[in-house]
Amino acid sequence: MIANLTSSERQQAFVLAVGVVLAGGAMTILGRSDTLGVHGAIVMLFAGVVLYLIMSSFYDPEPVEDRESSYYDDPIKAGIVLSMAWAVFGMFMGVWVAAQLAWPDLAFDAAWSSFGRLRPTHTTGVIFGFGGNALIATSFHVVQRTSRARLAGQVSPWFVLLGYNLFCVLAVSGYLLGVTQSKEYAEAEWYADLWLVIVWVTYFVLYLRTIARRKEPHIYVANWYFMAFILVVAILHIVNNLALPVSWGHAKSYTIWPGVQDAMVQWWYGHNAVAFFLTAGFLGMLYYYLPVRAQRPIFSYRLSILSFWGITFFYMWAGSHHLHYTALPHWVQTLGMTFSVMLLVPSWASAGNALLTLNGAWHRVRDDATLRFMMAAAVFYGLSTFEGSFMAIRPVNSLSHYTDWTVGHVHAGALGWVALITFGSLYTLVPALWKRERMYSAALIEVHFWLAIAGTLIYVFAMWNSGIIQGLMWRTYTEDGALAYSFVDSLVAMYPYYIARAFGGLLFLIGAIVGCYNIWMTVRAVPVAAARAADVPVTPVAVPGE
Amino acid sequence: MADTYHRKLERSAIGLVIAIIAAASVGGIVEIAPLFTIDETVEQAPDMRVYTPLELAGRNIYVREGCYACHSQMIRTLRDEVERYGPFSLAVESQYDRPMLWGSKRTGPDLARVGGKYSDFWHVAHLTNPRDVVPESNMPAYRWLARTTLKTDDLPQHLAAQRALGVPYTEEMVENAARDAYGQATPDTDFAAGVTERYGDKTQVSAFDGVTTHVTEMDALVAYLQVLGRLTGAAFEGTAAPEEKPDPEG
Amino acid sequence: MDFDHQAVVAFSKSWGLFYLMALALGVLVYTFWPSNRKRFDRAKHSILDRDDRPWQK
């Protein structure tokens, strides 16, 4: 981990780790009669392990070669491993909570394992743990390669990566302890939120400084998406999480937004977290790894620019479609609906751009499961953005809202788009980073692909069915004008679908485990002896004169 | 001109940053800013009271257990919802809610007007094991709530934090928060009188979980569930409500 | 000027639209500006140059 750091950088890392240990100690003391104290201990433990890793090789020889002549890949490798670990954790939690809906006794009568506490560990585990680590790792990779420059920091990439994972650990362990704000996708409490702000600002500065060092005159569009992701997530996170702690010794806080304003801010956040975390960041992956894997330039670079600004602009307005027919003012609902429909244009422009890039290379999509992952991701992206715009239309929303249809839609995007593009990108990235000829087993990628596709389809079809049945049962009237079904009737109708959903999720989880094994075996394999042609340093002639 | 302008914009990454902020945040601001003046248009509810300390503690348990993941507290302006759950929710009804718990998914029914629909005894039995009362239910059992003593000593701090954010708790309410929480769940003690004195005589004082010797988390959660939709009668004014206005006394 | 709710809503509704149009125009001009074509073409192809080291000045 620190073999590539000079002795003064090792000291910096040491000071940082000690600082975090001390902060954890302060939390432990201030919150000794509260769950905050438990979190203080977790912070100390986490930072203590990092400290041990730093100290254990503190006096190892310093790096001798000029580090500026190589890319900084160590944090990326760690990020990939962490991302896959979180994937298995988060998806396992997902299968568990899904099974609890069908068999409620699977909570085993404990507080920490009840549905309401486990559910955010699933959402945080997959969105922030799996997705976030994958985004950090790939953004570090893409920004270096497209800028032809090394990351602008030696310690800060590690700080970003490990700090971010500390946030994830605090969030997930907090839910199990009952520490939550009950704001969807922003459940972590005030101190974890503050910590994330520090980490995120470091991430932003690091990214910006690396781009400023670029040798290419133009900033490649993938970086635009990553930058929008970093920047807007920071804004969303800060605004939505403004809260007043009960005291410095309490984990509990109260949001500064009351009632209807909180609803608007929450869904402005919630929807844009989907936009800038789960869409913009992963589009950054798509615009780099898809052309690289296909060995074909993107179909239209201009189209990618237009859809970038379209997405950046339109998404911000769309959040209020989560609040149709509620106490939110009518004009805000209408505005949200309009922009949600308009959003289809830039979304389909991106999906179409990706698919047209592959046009003429379909034989490669057929033979290469990694490329097929990315192709399928683009298709699911197109489908789920269409579905999203459709569901934002008020009359459709009156049926779909509060039902499993929403859950199905989210998973069409999360499994079909986010996870598939991530797996495709990681299978492209892993052999390149660890300097292997290829992944350990192409057959296992194939197995993973079909498990993922089967799992996603079973899941999404189960939820479409259950959601629409549920929505229709709620609004069905008998001939004498009375409601035809009680709520429990609609719940009983859901059970077969809940079982099917848990099975679909299980297939997806098995696929992710197969992926972990494949990546692990690739990393363990013997590096290719002869340097690949690509390893030859670029001669000065190749540097553009511009 | 435009060319050199854009070239500059792109050459420095800062330009791109500013452009992204302009494109992304202004839209949100334009949409959200009017909501800060919304109190001018929101209906008034002079009869609305704040949560009692016990109800607030119950609400915090509702938050802690993530109940919002399966239960909404927002009745939409749709005929079937109004007939199933009661008058549609008004913005003013959640004015003291931090966070709001409108929810996004109904694995279980909406709870915005569940207060008073069932007896305390029913709620305790249902929370202890939902399948004893509703055999088809897939809700988790919350047996441990009745075993866990409610933490009341820091309730004054909770009320003070709420007051700092603008919830109209009086100094007296803050000071007596812990005693009031105890009193609301122990009807025959001296503490009970203070609750109705401070929060109005419509406040339900009851041995929610049937045990009067000490206050448990079950007491708090049931007290909260029983007040849902009953802090104000505003939603029942002038709407074609299919139900009677709730009468907390009855 | 008095910022009552109606005024803020009216401002949002009208200037929000102008803002949308101005931004769309700006983006279109940038994207289709003739002299930008070369840079975009280069960006499009340059990510396919395989190299494993940062460029040195």
Question: What characterizes the major β-sheet of chain C?
Answer: none
Tally of contiguous helical segments of chain C: 2
* Coarse shape of chain C: elongated
Oligomer: heterotrimer
Beta-strand proportion of chain C: under 5%
Mean pLDDT of chain B: 87
The first-to-last residue Cα distance of chain B is: 76 Å
Question: What is the tally of beta strands of chain C?
Answer: 0
- The sequence of SSEs of chain B as H and E is HHHHHHHHHHHH
Q: How does the helix and strand content of chain B classify structurally?
A: mainly alpha
Report low-confidence residues of chain B grouped into runs of 5 or more: 240-250
Biggest sheet overview of chain B: none
The beta-strand count of chain B equals: 0
CATH architecture descriptor of the largest domain in chain B:
Orthogonal Bundle
Shape of chain B: globular
How large is the share of residues in beta strands of chain B? under 5%
Number of helices of chain B: 12
